Amino acid sequence: MGGMMEKKAINPLLEQQMPTIIVTGGAGFIGTNFIRHLLDIRPGWRIVNLDALTYAGNAANLADVAPARYRFVRGDIGDETLVRGLLAEERPQAVVNFAAESHVDRSIVGPLAFVETNVLATARLLLACRNDWEEKGRPADFRFLHVSTDEVFGSLGPEGYFTETTAYDPSSPYSASKAASDHLVRAWQRTYGFPALVTNCSNNYGPYQFPEKLIPLMILNIVEEKELPVYGDGRNVRDWLYVIDHCEALATVLEKGVPGETYNIGGGAERANIDVVHQLCDLLDERLGRGPDRSSRSLIRHVSDRPGHDRRYAIDAGKIQRELGWRPRFAFEQALAATVDWYLAHGPWVDSVRSGEYRKWIDLNYGATRARADIN
Ligand code: NAD
Ligand code: TYD
User: Fold this and answer.
1) More reliable by pLDDT, 21 or 358
2) 4-209+241-268+312-331+359-375: CATH homologous superfamily?
């Protein structure tokens, strides 16, 4: 018995016959990659994807997944009745929460949607999950994994790294709302003993990312020979992680992480935005046969800076490496090239996500409201 308990604590999910995992926000960028990855590495697992399908969600991302192991449910994480029903019906071994409003620039234009989803709806999801967990007699093998961001820590100077003990100091409505959700998850763990884990990851890139974020936006603008809007001086630094590395880290935390703990996840690939944009220009020029006389770098425009723009993010991923044995597998240069190739090969996906709503956002963010700066 003692031995069994010990084994369960290490990896309870692998002991189930066919574990069911509820993934929220699984029709978005990271959720899509996570579901595909988990179904691939864990052939015995089944996934239920609960997603409200906001502008950022696309159920077609997973249309080809075998229905025997995958179910899509359209709904809001803040709908307690729906979530309670789903938990009762599916009896999942884990809930992995990706559902969120996720774009800093949108949070500057319309912060309330971020409070509603990332704070209130997350609290409702926690209520529903904890009540279900209590009613089922606090199953020892249940896990709630909350996927968060390094942006909760605010901005770094030129030195240093975010660790799990760095104080939260969010700058944007997005990061403040994610910080609030992390606090709620930890409160549920400390107050109710709810078996929750939190991960804080750096900037992701890879397939299925909505083209409002830096890397896919730049790829598509370069292809279409549109201007490349670089905020401020372009020297803001992000610590880039290929999305599959993030998915592997999340699977590791789900299986081996200790409830109540937080794990920082990062790629150790710090790059200034302008350097990323230069790399993308060069990768695409090579693929599109544009010579030096037509270099896409000439499309770069320095535009007015993002208000409250964090200067530098960098993760110390020592804890997850030491305690859980995860480390990133993909080098930035190769994975960036693979990402460029994915977007070039998926024109119909790009067309389908760039709807009328997307056009409105581009006009709002890059039109008259973001006048060109005189830095260039
Ligand atoms: P995304 O915007 O691509 O996807 C979010 C998904 O959540 C969408 O499918 C959307 O329809 C869904 N959703 C939104 N509100 C919902 C609600 N109330 N109920 C149910 N579904 C809802 O975001 P992403 O980039 O895939 O990020 C996923 C998570 O990872 C977020 O919590 C984000 O904060 C976190 N994160 C992202 C990054 C990154 O670089 N993208 C880095 C670290 C952490
Ligand atoms: P983004 O992809 O929005 O991620 P985050 O704000 O969560 O880090 O932006 C990454 C960096 O790129 C950030 O420093 C802002 C900058 N950026 C631009 O310079 N131009 C753009 O058009 C966008 C979308 C971002």
Assistant:
1) 21
2) NAD(P)-binding Rossmann-like Domain (3.40.50.720)
